[in-house]
Amino acid sequence: MNKRKIILKTVGLTKHYGGVKALVNADFSMFRDEHIAIVGDNGAGKSTFVRNITGVEQPTSGTIFFDEKIIRFRSPTDARDHGIETVYQNLALADDLDVPANIFLGREIEYFRFGPLSWLNKSVMRQRSLELLEKTGIKISNIGQPVISMSGGQRQCVAISRAAGWDSKLIIMDEPTAALGIQETTKVENIIRGLKDRGIPVIIVSHNLRQVFDLVDRIVVFRQGKIVGVVDTKEVSGNDVVAMITGVDKGVHDQANHV
What we know:
There is one protein chain. The protein has nine helices and twelve strands. By secondary structure, the protein is α/β, with parallel strands linked by helices. The protein is globular and about 60 Å long. Mean pLDDT is about 90; it is low at about 250-259.
């Protein structure tokens, strides 16, 4: 029987801002074939954890293992170059550019470059963008329109397709449907399920417990800068998770079932 491999692991990950302990001894493990949700109240440490594993910030102490190697990313670009793509809540799209330009932002395909001048191969970028959208299950009728003219759901789909289209080893999504309506939320959730079918691991940061239980294998609960629970979605209820988030029945629920 093949042993499941771990794609991301942190040991004792800690981040202090002066005297404020935003993240304390976070031990986290994630298999290559699973989807995980990170939940907790505002200020619980979720965003700090994500910023430290993606190179936005440097941890005060602790160790990060990615793809079975000890690593500390110097920047989000460094993390992306190693295979971690992050879809932020603000999407980080260039509003005035079209879909291919956004998908290839920072990865442009050029006919040639002469000093600071370059000539982009827009036809190849367009064709590859169509292929990426199809592979991700995303339908956009006119990919040549500026993304600022698109709906929130379409914009989110562009951001996800950009993250999923580059042989990503891990995708992190920050509140992927927070600003979307019911229909657009359903479309994005179906895309996330498609990533699961393709074997792409995903971390979802979300306050939406219904979504969490529908989409992920395990839930990691943060409270007051610490990981206070790691549970299988098939083995707990929403009330159990809320109890861990709030600290109710603390003695029962503060047991993390780490890998």
